[in-house]
Design goal:
about 230 residues; alpha/beta; four-stranded antiparallel sheet; globular; disordered C terminus
Length: about 230
């Protein structure tokens, strides 16, 4: 589902963000990618979304070779990826329903399909009773659930969650990851990019640790700590 083969990314001025990164994430896996600030996590995400190109190496996402993909195919690649951002990125003048529906409208989905799909997704994330609430009327955890619903609405093969618990308290963080685990059980590949080692240890999932742009540990630990 996701494959990095000896991927290096060097920015102008000789800044080496990733150095021969090599890993494969299979369909249906639940994976934490861990690293402190400057480890290369943001660059990794930008490469997955085809916002940046690697300096060297090969990246494959959902059967798309990102080294060879044509520009007109990039929107199709991105529809395979549901992205959840740390800062939610909700439109403040739209309700929860409208924020999720907007993600479908911009890709020209029929109105009837939007009316069918959006309530279903809001129910999955436990917000069926908050569909008409605006972001300012929602808690941080509820806003993150709207962001997750928006990521799910196209039924993507992969969910990429970028520090999804960074702006919510620890109790809500656990709830969000448990929700992502539930989505994973339904067959979606889930990748959580975070600096929160404690969260990864709690859920005992496979952990890929980045340090200074390199993979220093990759484990499918069942009970070990990601230290």
């Amino acid at each position: 589902m996701i494959e990095f083969r000896n991927v290096t990314k060097e920015y102008p001025g000789g800044v080496l963000a990733l150095d021969e990164v090599d890993f494969t994430i299979d369909k249906g896996e639940f994976v934490f990618i861990l690293g402190h600030s400057g480890a290369g996590k943001s660059t990794l995400l930008k490469l997955m979304l085809k916002e940046e190109d690697p300096t060297d190496g090969v990246i494959t996402i959902a059967d798309y070779n990102l080294n060879k993909i044509r520009r007109r195919k990039i929107p199709y690649l991105r529809r395979e990826l549901g992205v959840v951002f740390q800062d939610f990125r909700l439109i403040p003048t739209m309700t929860a329903y409208e924020n999720v529906a907007f993600a479908m409208r911009v890709t020209n989905v029929a109105a009837r399909e939007i009316r069918r799909r959006v309530p279903y997704i809001l129910k999955i994330v436990g917000l069926e009773d908050k569909s008409m609430a605006y972001p300012e009327q929602l808690s941080g955890g509820e806003q993150q659930r709207v962001a997750l619903a928006r990521a799910l609405v196209h039924n993507p093969k992969i969910i990429l969650a970028d520090e999804p618990t960074g702006n919510i308290d620890p109790k809500l963080s656990i709830e969000i990851v448990e929700l992502l685990k539930e989505i994973n059980r339904l067959g979606t590949t889930v990748v959580i990019v975070t600096h929160d080692i404690g969260l990864a240890n709690r859920f005992k999932a496979r952990t890929i640790i980045l340090k200074d742009g390199r993979v220093v540990r990759d484990t499918k630990a069942k009970g070990g700590s990601a230290t």
